[in-house]
Amino acid sequence: MADLAVAPRAWGGRVRLLAWLQEYGVYVSVLALLLFNVVFTPHFLEVANFRTQLIQVAPVVITSLGMALVIGTEGIDLSVGSVMALASAVVVLYLGYGAPVAIVAALIAGAAVGAGGGALVAYVGVQPIVATLALLVGVRGLANVLVPQLTEFRNPTLITLGSRSVLGLPLVVIIAAALTVLVAFLVKRTTFGRQLVAVGGNRAASRLSGLPVRRVLVTVYLISGLLAAVAGVLATSRLQASDPTSLGLLMELSAITAVVVGGTPLTGGRVRVLGTVLGALLIQLLQATLIKHNLPQSWTQMVQAVIILAAVYAARGRRA
Amino acid sequence: MSRTSGLVAVALAALLATAACAKGEDSGETPAPAGSAGQQVVQSQGAAGPTCTLQSFGGQKFDLKKDVVGFSQSEKEANPFRIAETRSIKDEAAKLGIANLRVTNAQSQFSKQISDVQQLIAQGAKLLIIAPLNSDGWEPVLRQAAEKKVPIITIDRKINAQPCTDYLTFIGSDFYQQGERAADQMIQALGGQGEVAILLGAPGNNVTTDRTKGFKDRIQEKAPGITISFEQTGEFTREKGQQVTEQLIQSRPGTEGIYAENDEMALGAVTALKGAGKSPGQVKIVSVDGTRAAVQGIVDGWLSAVVESNPRFGPLAFSTTQKFLDGEGIPATVIISDQEYTTANAKESLGNAY
Fold it and tell me: For residue A200, what is the domain's CATH number?
């Protein structure tokens, strides 16, 4: 007020700060939470602890990767939690043929649901939120029909998938890391990745310039369904039981949070893979911190809300 | 457009094929016979309180065998408790020759349960057996039932209303006492000393509150050497029970006992302990329910004790109705006597578990 000339510069500074926060906020938050825990949480700096956190976050990371791609096309996939449940149901239904066949069947089921949702979005023109909402409800129902109650299994291959370690690293974590690299490569280095970003950035222009918009959309939802099925199989093998009633419940919200907090705008045209992984880690660490300090878990939800709002605010400031 | 339908058709076909050629793992286990094993026994009939007769209720005599009888289940039959509960009602009805039993399931949605029961009343039900999802919010249903003088028996959870005017009676377990008995088992397993964690049930549920309070009160009263250092919700599911236990044993290695407020969370805790390389019995687990898998857990040495919460309401619900029709007085609450499974009896009682 006193010095008008300062105002624009301060404004510019704030915009720059918000832009920086959107870009790196998630890294800073994860680092801060790690530091807090190192200082205040007993037994935090132990290998077993990092194993626990990484194992628990792996299915969330895998689902969030697919969600990031979908959101990159200005879409959304609410069906991922139900697809996890379907994969969980299918894998035990086919266990009689052996674990590999059962896992492939589960992945096919997930990809089929994804492709179905993608077809509704791309060819019928149903809004993504509506198409995948229908799948969220219907696919959970289907999973419950296929496996009506929690079913334990004894297949050693499927059980070791969830508990085995290779070179000291849990297999589940290795799979999540490999898929992260794969998706990052897909986005950064392939024609499909560039098409995806273009479709999300400006669909009309993409269509006019001859990009296969519909095919890209169907493929993106198919990948999201496939990744959710992978997460569902891994979660099932870790639980050593198929539980379609509660497995993957509210996973779509965790995944969307991870993507948004990771800096991918809901308006599409941009996919941040590493940011998404960090977003998932942030939610996991937050939950772990509250549990380890024996604080009510309802707090997690409230803190999560604050983080989401902060992320969205930072994104808004950037565009201003 | 033809491409669209093609894609959708392929997706649908793939899903249907999923169900068509499924082949599950050989489980090697046969499901429990429905027989009379583990039948409910009445513990107390609320002796002090007034009783309700057909006359004081103001109802009409009806024929249990021929008239419409409605059963409204609250939750999906996806967990052993609900499966056993619904099966018990159906089996007993078949055994007694009750021809017109109508069963509904509210799928955990309270508004659906309300309309389910209204439908049953509209279909001319002369008796309603309700497993309520919530305790409150039943006024519209109660008013309709009262107009037609349809007696309501609520099972496993209570309705907040006036017995003998709004409903006939409540048959169920004493959840507070289940918590107390779990505490007794924990005290015994730990020799009265040690650090205990609680896996709480779903928040905002009277089962959770009562099982927690009963446990804590008893520990405080009987075993001051036991400290409850950790309590987190596992939301009554196996997955959550496993995840919370993984965090627990990593950050609080001194934990010697885990009280799980249902069997599913206890089994999740067992998976977590196995994953952390613990051996059976290293951490003492006590839980509530009495499902077959949990009682098997006692036999295998992972669980110390399971306090039963008996879901087999069929025989008691219908015998209570018959007494009511015969003009006998019915108490406002019928508390059933739950069993206990310990290392001493788990093996031979496995057949009673559900």
Answer: 1.10.3470
